[in-house]
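User: I'll paste a sequence; please echo it back and then give the predicted structure.

Assistant: Echoing your sequence first, then the prediction.
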Amino acid sequence: MEEGRISYVRRSVRALPALLIAAGLAYDFASPLAFSGAPFLTAAPLVAAPLYSLHGTVCTGAAAVCALLVVRFTVGGLETVEAVTELVTVVVVSALAVVINVLVRRSGERLASARRVAEAVQRALLPEPAERVGGFQVAALYEAAQEDASIGGDLYAVQDTPHGVRMIVGDVRGKGLGAVGAVAAMIGAFQEAAEQETTLEAVAQRLERALARESGRSDGGDPREGFTTAVLAELPHGAPKVRVVNRGHPPPLLLYADGAVRPLSASDPALPLGMGWLGTWPDRADEAEFPSGATLLLYTDGLSEARDRTGRFYDPEQALAGRADALREPAVLLGTLAAEARRHSGGGMADDLALLAVRRP
């Protein structure tokens, strides 16, 4: 329904130049000679400039000039100073509309090129995972809060290793290139550590050191202000279990085949990655059963902090309770969650959103 309304508005706006020309003609023919519809004709090419192609803008300007000439030849008064002034005005404004159209098109091409580069960077940093990893069904989804933005500070990764299928979902503090650099450092460190380290706790410590190095290389700002909330999970080969290390991140949700939902809250809460300067303490992995038909959902706070007009947060645990059958496939689950969060917040997300779902068949 919303897309239909948007399409109707777009068609109406694109029809505006033709309507302006028609209104100018009607006004001229219906009013005394002292009154003129030239303002309508002058506005038509200006409105067409950002809406139409170059050819369409030129044709609109020519149509406006021809309409004015038709009126003056029909009604009279072409030889007057006012008529000549009107004609010159419409011709000059039409020429300016063509210039505006060219500038708008060039800006649009540059924006499209920048968007393509951003999308390529995102695909390089956050590649789409395979549908099956280590025997598990996997799906990931990333949506930027800012319209037309492609990359931000949220991250995800999943990797099959000798120690099991390991994954991470995180949220880097901040925006812009600094956040993208931290995401790149985190993803690179995770891919290496997940393969080499024998425990999930050791992977978390490697990420801590990688983020500290990245903060030290960054120019400007206090390195102590850079941190990343993250949750790491491990699905051991041959064992129906899941191990979780949570560093200040929203707890993963375990969705059972019967529709029950269980948050995997940390038994010993820890600070986010990058805050090791406050002190050192060992990470502790929590373990839970991960039976057949269950789905593990990891997400960033872009989902749980989506608010409606009254300030009420979207609650994924409550929203998913009793819906296991309808959301069995990970890709369907993530698409449904993202759509519901957007509707809950009125169509505008306040923060980026990263989702990762892994299902044991």
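The CA atoms of residues 197 and 203 lie 6 Å apart. The mean pLDDT is 84.
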